[in-house]
Design goal:
The strands form five sheets. Strands 1, 2, 11, 12, 13, 14 and 20 form a seven-stranded mixed beta sheet that branches. A seven-stranded mixed beta sheet has the order 7-6-16-17-18-15-19, sandwiched between helices. It has three domains: 219 residues, FAD/NAD(P)-binding domain; 103 residues, no CATH class; 118 residues. It is globular and about 65 Å long. About 1% of the residues have low confidence. The protein starts with 6 loop residues before the first strand and ends with a helix. It has 18 helices and 20 strands. The protein has 527 residues and is an alpha/beta fold. The longest helix has 25 residues. InterPro entries: Amino_oxidase, FAD/NAD-bd_sf. GO terms for molecular function: oxidoreductase activity.
Length: 527
């Protein structure tokens, strides 16, 4: 059995959080090794070429939640990171009309006014409130969650500081935040707007990656979670990384290497070595053993505690809590290589509407019916789709004159009736293409290749338990000091020198890097 040299930290998983963690630890002059099981870095934030000349952001496909402090600290632009803004959202409607929101505020206001003068007036007030609430929640993204049950002076100080922060919000914003934390996105938006496609398209942010419907309580907070995305300080800004989301991971990896971190691909970890209640290193599937001062898991909580270590080495109540941690996959992805652009009936031909997002979300009822299918173990026959055409923003993603289309789809339950197989995968892909073709009739004629990814594929190929893209649902009982379980939301674990840094920890999913950064801060403080 081969034995390698000793490191200060070994990080399991080369997703973006693991790479951020490595970069910060290496920046502090620690000897760091990242072990990635696949042949390519990035985890869910990866760019792959399934068909010659066509590059796809396979799973994660947009960028906005990546913390600005990480971009600054690691100087990611010097490593090639360039975010190109997505400047519009188009919602095609079944009657041939559409609703569009543009980067130009006045143009958006006029468009909403075309559907409802009342909503055009309310839109600015809503935007101001959401900006204020996103700004109020922003400090939590950079905070290690305190333990409200602890009596230690450090924890009590952090709780008092947190309480003062919320007290300073003022009565109106505090109550508005409380409503957001408890209501469904549909009910919350009903209080503001009357236009169905506007409400539905905005409500979609509350269900992405979560096994809930737009009428499920708690989804209004998920809406705010996505609203906190920012580019250059502008909230609710979304962008596309030049070269795909894999370029984000590559830039972070290059920064980590500059600080001295070692990164190995095709190096799957079989187990974490534990001696006398303390992590001492890892054993690879190849038989190689690597010793380390600390071990950091960037994979999801179920893999971290139920597969990589013997659960018998953990407290029984902790293991039971991890078993209860909700991690149901609810989404799929369809990536298309196109011979020409889709031609939408509502806005024919090329245009700026193809350089932003396209949302198939005509009404709240449409979205809830899509969820109804999933509730009973079927993929949505008429699914919600969030679509971008990356080659319209970055021509290097496809050969000249060709295009790639990224389609994020809800709902596709991991626990599909009868299970996932090739036939069901094809049927799911057909449902997506058939639905989209109702709005862009030429689509089927311009498809050269398609890659359909189910939750089972996400688990087997990308290591996401149950195919959950966020390493665990963003439900209220799994947020902040409850993520992944109470008393262990500070990136530490019951096993000494074994830490977490994946999206299953605070603040949750999306390409944020926050979990990796906060975990590194905790590790360095413990040292």
């Amino acid at each position: 059995m081969a034995r390698g040299k000793r490191y200060d930290a070994v990080i399991i998983g080369g997703g973006h959080n693991g790479l951020v963690n490595a970069a910060y630890l290496a920046r502090a002059d620690k000897r760091v090794l990242v072990l990635e099981r696949r042949h390519v870095l990035g985890g869910s934030a990866v760019t792959e070429e399934f068909f010659p000349g066509f590059k796809f952001s396979t799973l994660s496909y947009v960028v906005s939640l990546l913390r600005p402090e990480i971009i600054r600290d690691l100087d990611l632009p010097s490593h090639g990171l360039e975010i190109l803004p997505l400047e519009s959202t188009l919602t095609p409607l079944p009657n041939g009309d559409y609703l569009a929101r543009w980067a130009d505020h006045d143009r958006t206001r006029r468009e909403i006014y075309r559907h409802s003068a009342t909503d055009a007036e309310a839109y600015d007030d809503f935007g101001r409130l959401m900006y204020q609430l996103a700004f109020a929640m922003k400090p939590l993204l950079g905070m290690v969650p305190p333990d409200p049950t602890s009596l230690s002076p450090r924890e009590l100080y952090r709780l008092v500081k947190l309480g003062k922060h919320f007290r300073d919000l003022g009565r109106e914003r505090f109550y508005a935040l409380y409503k957001l934390l408890t209501m469904s996105s549909a009910d919350y938006l009903d209080e503001w707007f009357e236009t169905e496609p506007l409400k539905a398209t905005m409500a979609c942010s509350g269900i992405i990656g979560t096994f809930l419907g737009v009428r499920s309580p708690g989804t209004a907070y998920v809406l705010l979670h996505h609203y906190m995305g920012e580019i250059d300080g502008a909230f609710r800004s979304w962008g596309f990384a030049r070269g795909g989301t894999g370029a984000v991971s590559q830039a972070i990896a290059d920064a980590a290497r500059r600080y001295g971190a070692e990164i190995r691909t095709e190096s799957p970890v079989a187990a974490v070595k534990v001696k006398n209640g303390r992590a001492t290193g890892v054993a690879l599937e190849s038989g190689e053993e690597i010793d380390a001062r600390v071990v950091v898991s960037a994979v999801d909580p179920k893999l971290t505690f139920l597969k990589l270590v013997d659960p018998g080495q953990l407290p029984i109540d902790f293991v039971e809590a991890i078993h209860r941690f909700r991690i149901r996959g609810s989404s799929g992805k369809v990536n298309l290589a196109l011979d020409a652009l889709p031609n939408f009936t509502c806005l024919p031909g090329d245009g700026p509407h193809l350089r932003g997002a396209i949302s198939i979300s005509p009404s709240i009822d449409y979205l809830e019916r899509a969820y109804d299918d999933a509730k009973y173990g079927e993929f949505s026959r008429r699914p919600y789709m969030d679509i971008v055409i990356p080659s319209m923003i970055d021509p290097t993603m496809a050969p000249p004159g060709k295009h790639v289309m990224s389609i994020f789809v809800q709902y596709a339950p991991y626990d599909l009736n009868g299970g996932w197989n090739e036939k069901r995968r094809d049927a799911f892909g057909d449902a997506v293409i058939d639905t989209l073709s109702d709005f862009a009739p030429n689509l089927k004629n311009v498809i050269l290749h398609r890659k359909v990814i189910t939750p089972l594929d996400m688990e087997q190929e990308y290591g996401l338990t149950d195919g959950n893209i966020f390493h665990g649902e963003l439900a209220l009982h799994q947020l902040f000091f409850m993520r992944p379980v109470p008393s262990w939301a500070d990136y530490r674990t019951p096993i000494k020198d074994y830490y977490q840094c994946g999206s299953g920890t605070h603040p949750g999913g999306g390409i944020t890097g926050a979990s990796g950064r906060l975990s590194a801060q905790v590790i360095l403080k413990d040292w």
